[in-house]
Design goal:
40% strand; 14% helix; eight-stranded antiparallel β-sheet; four-stranded antiparallel β-sheet; OB fold (Dihydrolipoamide Acetyltransferase, E2P); mainly beta; 204 residues
Length: 204
């Protein structure tokens, strides 16, 4: 289904595209998107770059053979938890977007809105035939909204918007569950996980 878009197999059957053509209707997917629940350990291990910051702007474009719309998001990183960045401003490419009266939507994709802040788990790959870029590889599980709560800033997983299949331990809610995690506690845990995983990589 996604071969002509150049989508790598790691996304697999978890993705189903709903394509809106013009302004008159939707071609609906044949079934529901299925995502297996990932914990912080898995998210850290699976991604090369983890950043905290704010979305500055977003612009949609066609992929290389004009078969699917993607959106390039300008993101200002205030903290880098994993990986190295040459500059604090980076571009994250999302599947889907709107150009004129044509809009494409990938169910389960992360949503990044200008002016809002996020914790993002990113990998570099060729997304939907749009060229190599940093992407939210794990879709809604790789994006955490940063929100102010009565006890401080919290990071809340976008995966709360979509049912997850339970992991091997039977957990079906994303890290932090409905309330999310206090941002400082989450960032500290991510750094600890990366330090442990990095030490294991060095031993190998």
């Amino acid at each position: 289904m996604f071969g002509r878009f150049g989508l790598r197999s790691r996304f697999g059957a978890a993705l189903l595209a709903a394509v809106i053509c013009g302004t008159v209707g939707i071609t609906a997917p044949a079934g529901a998107t299925t995502l297996m629940r990932m914990g912080l350990e898995e998210l850290v291990a699976a991604n090369s770059t983890i950043v905290v910051g704010e979305v500055l702007a977003a612009e949609s474009r066609w992929n290389e053979d004009a078969t699917f719309i993607v959106t390039d998001v300008r993101f200002a990183a205030s903290d880098v938890l994993k990986g190295r960045l040459a500059e604090t401003e980076l571009t994250v490419t999302l599947p889907g977007g709107k150009i004129g009266n044509r809009a494409h939507l990938l169910i389960g994709a992360a949503e990044l809105v200008p002016g809002h802040s996020y914790v993002l788990f990113l990998s570099r790959m060729n997304l939907m035939g749009a060229g190599e870029a940093l992407v939210v590889r794990d879709l809604i599980q790789g994006a955490f909204d940063i929100r102010m709560d009565k006890d401080g800033l919290r990071a809340v997983s976008q995966a709360l918007r979509h049912p997850l299949m339970p992991d091997r331990s039977g957990q079906a809610l994303p890290p932090g569950e409905e309330k999310g995690m206090l941002i400082n506690a989450m960032l500290s845990e991510i750094r600890q996980i990366e330090a442990r995983q990095g030490a294991r990589r060095e031993v190998k």
